[in-house]
Structures are given as C-alpha cells and as structure tokens.
Amino acid sequence: MFCSLRTVRRQKKLVFTAFMFLIEELGRLTEKRLCLDKILLQCVLQSRTLSGADAINALRPFYFAVHPDFFGQHPKEREVNENSLKRLNGYLENLQKPGFRSFKPTQLTFYVREREPNSSNVQESFSASGFRAVSFTLHTRDLLSTVLDILNSCSLSTEHVQSLNVSSQPHKEAKSTVNRPIKWDKTYYSFTGFKDPEEELEQAQRVETTLLSWLDYNEASAVKKLKKSLPLRKELERLKIELSHELQLSDIRWQRSWGIAHRCSQLHSLGRLVQQRPEVLENVKGRTVVFTDRSGMSAAGHIMLGTMDVHHHWTKIFERLPNYYKLQKRLLLLEDRISQLLGGIQVIYIEELQPLLTLEEYFELLNSFYNKLRDSRLPFHPRSLRGLQMILESDRYAPSLHEFGHFMIPTVCDPAALQWFIFAKAQEARENLKRKEEMMITEKELISTSTERFSLDRLYKEPSVSSAQMIDCCKRLLEESLPYLQGMHLCVSHFYSVLQDGDLCIPWNWKN
User: What residue stretches are annotated with the DUF4460 domain (predicted)?
Assistant: First the structure.
C-alpha cells in the first residue's frame, strides 16, 4: 500500500514537471511568435511606405508618355495633358498631407504617346496621330495604389515598382494586420443609425460629380484665388494695352494657359527690350505677337517669342522680320498655285485645329504637296470648287471632311484618291460650311446671353471644345439657376478644375 502511494506521488511529480515544461516551452514559443509578428509588422509597414520621391520615380514612364513637351505639334492635346497633370499633382500632394481625409473621385483624361495597345478596363480611343486618349477615375487613398492605378490605366508596366521595395500584395496583408478596422454586420448600422463606411465609399464611386455640387464645394477656393489675382489681372491688361499701342500691334496672345503672373513677367520682358532696342521693333506694326515655346514666325504669320529664350534670341527674330515677310509672300503664291490645280479650292491654315508650325515648316509642307499635284496633272475643272476650303496635314494618311466643312488633306495622299474624295464630298462640304456660319453666330449669341444672365466677368472655352459642344453647354446652363457664378471667370473645358488664378473650368457635358 505504501509502495503504491509512493509510486502515485512519483507519477504526479513527473506529470507536474512535464506540465511546467510545456508551459515554459509555450511561453518561449509565444515570445518567438510575438517577435516574428513584430518583425512581420515592421516589414509590412516598410513595404507600404512610399515617399513622394518614390512616387515620382515610379511614374517616370507615365510622365514620359504624357509630358506636354512631346505634343508641341498638337496644341489641343498638349493643353489637355497640361491641365490634367496639374490636377493629378494636386491629388498626389493631398495624399501626402498628414491627416488629409477629404478625397473626392477625380476623373482625368490624358493623351498617351502611342505604344502597342493592350486590353484595358478604361475607355481608350486610338488616333492616327501617334497617341491615344485615356480616361480614368482616381479614388485611392495612398500613394502606392494611386501610382499602380495610373500605370495600369495607361497600359504601362508596373514591374519597376517592385524595385522600390514596394508591392501591391503587402497592401492586402497590411489591411488585415495593421490598423484593421472592426467590420460590423449590416444590422449594426441599421440598428444604431451610424453610416456604413464601405457603403459610403461605394456610393461615392458610383455617383458622378454634378455641376451644382462641384460649384458648391469649390466656390470659396475659386473666389479666394480670383480676388488674389485681381491686381495682377489689371497689371496684365495695362501692360498689354500699352505695348500694343506703342508697337502698333494687332494683338498679343499666348499659346498655352500660363498663369497671370507668368504672362505679366513675359510682357515686362518685352517692355524692357522695347526700351533697350527700340530700333529692332520697327517692323512689327500691324502684327500679332504670340508667346509660345519657340521663337520665329508661325504659319499664320504671327511673331512667335519663345518664353525660354533670352532677349538676344528675340532681337534676332525681330531683325529677321523682313526676310520672313518675303517668305510669307512666296507662301501665299504657293497656296494660290495649289488652289488653281484643285479647281479653285482655298488652302487655309487654322491655328486652333492644326499643329503649331513655323513659316519655314509650313512652306516646305506646301511645296512638297504642290510638286506632287503638279506632276499628277489632275483634271479639275477651273473654279469648279470655288467656295470650298482645305487644310494640309502631315500626320494623316487618308483625306477626311471636318464638321465645319473644310477638307483635311494628308500631304502623302494619293492624287487619284484625293480627286475622287473631293468630288464625292463637295456638296456635303458646302452644307457644312453654311452650317458652320450659323453655328458660330449662335455660339456668339449664347456666350453673350450666358455672360449677362449669370453676371460672369468672362465666359470662354478651350480650343479643343467645338462650337457644337459650346452651344449645347450654354443652352443647358441657361436652364439653371447658378448664383455661384457671379463675377467669376468660367472656362468650358473637358473636366472640372479650379485654375491657379481662380478661373472655374467645367466640362461641356456637365451633369446635373
């Protein structure tokens, strides 16, 4: 009996020792697990960290594909990319602000330089000009997701993002381990009356921005910027009037949508040149000066002053004006010869629709086309196409008819195909030209009526907005009550934006 009791005690002691050993091992395992979790958490956090500099590096292929400097011969597309980049940069800056939570879905449109097209969920249209239009909406709340969305939307590779020690996979892991919010059942929100954050996000993504809601949200910001810009606007107007009067210029323009301060600086620079070298500006009387990206004379006969050039370059351009005027006379003669070969059709150059060409570039374009026509000897009856218009384009391969009635003729077009196309479309072209005149009158009247109705300081449109789109926009605006617009500068564009000087940009096809 005593022996069996001692055996039981020994067994209990062994069980207790084993039990304590297990507890000790369990403690060590728990400590290791906690250590591993801590290391994993640190890795996840590091993998999710993306600085502003990292974002810029990751977006380099995108910037290379959409940078406005590569669209020098396509002013409409260049302007769209410039404005979209401004809005994208604002979105990226907000993402980096600590505590910033007020994100609204932002729709952007870019013209992307052409590459091999891939299938994509975004709306894409390909053009024959070497680029395609891509539209997408950003509603992400961190830099990494935003960068990946942009690259994927433009069908650009995301492999290089891995080299930044960032990947999209840890993003999902981080959601499940770091700062994980409590996911309540739907009945919780129904019972308590609290708002379901997931449902709110889905609704925000589904609902399109309306004109009234956007104006209500952005009015204060636009008014503040506009008031700040008023002294500079007056200064700009004063400088423009003084220089136009002193040099007897027809007009002073800007090719791109630079800010008011930038424009004032350019006029001050021209004013200094007038004071220092008045003799070189003797030949500018009656001309239009355009501030743009390069210096010379444009195909339309305007004096171009490159904003990156110094006075020395401007001085050379003014000294060459007599030679430019001689070349311009030769160019007009060349247009007349082409017109005679094509039955009296008028050769025109439309600044808003064509690439910005220098006088020399346009002369070479006309000369090449003229030589091709002369050798082909097309049998057009003299003056049979009088009243019709055409423009020459170097980036197309097939002729087409514009909605405004002018023919768009590629310089490489086959003469026989050109003859057939013009004969087949001549009547339609005359009808379109007549409709164009009516539309321009209607557009002018609607702009005047809208400006007066809403007490706007200015109502204008971007060059890429057609007359038909502007007419539709103004007609629908006049059906609304919009007290937000009083005293504002309103630009009809393809997207919503508040410019740096307070101008309000709205898409022509706004929703309400």
Answer: 46-156
